[in-house]
Amino acid sequence: MSSINSVSSFDSSISSSSSASSSSVEQTKVRIRYLLGEIAQLSSLDIPPDEYHAEFLNRVVSAMGSVGGAIWAFDAGTLALAYQVNFHSVGFQGDADANSRHARLLYRMTQSSGAGTLVPPHSGFEGDEESGNPTDWVLVFCPIRTELEVVGLVEILQRPDSDPMIQRGFAKFLAQTCALANDYYKNRQLRNFGERQNLWTLLEDFTRSIHLSLDVNETAYTVANEGRRLIECDRVSVALRVGGRCRIVAVSGQDIVDKRSTAVRLLAKLATAVIKAGEPVWYTGDTTNLAPQVERAIDRYVDESHTKTIAVFPLAKRKRADYEKDEDPTRREKAAYPFGALIVEQIESSRVHERMRKRIEIVADHASSAIGNAIELHGIFLMPLWRLIGKSKLLFTASMLPKTIIVTIILAAVVASLILVQWKFQMHCDGTLEPGIRRNIYAPVDAEVKQLFVDHNSKVTGTNNESEGTILLELYSSELESAWMKLLGEYMEILKQIDSLKIQELNVDKKLTDYELTQIRGQLEAANIRLETNKKQQILHKEQMANLIIRSPINGTVVTWDVKRRLSNKRPVSRMQYLMEIADETGEWQLELAMPEKRMGYILEHQKNLRKNDPNAKLRVEFIMATDPNKKYYGTVIENGIHDRAEVRSDTGSAAAASSSLNIVLIKVALDDQDALPASIRPGAECSARVDCGKKPLGYVLLYEVIAFVQKNVLFRWF
Question: Is 457 left (phi over 0), alpha (psi -120 to 50) or beta?
Answer without folding.
Answer: left
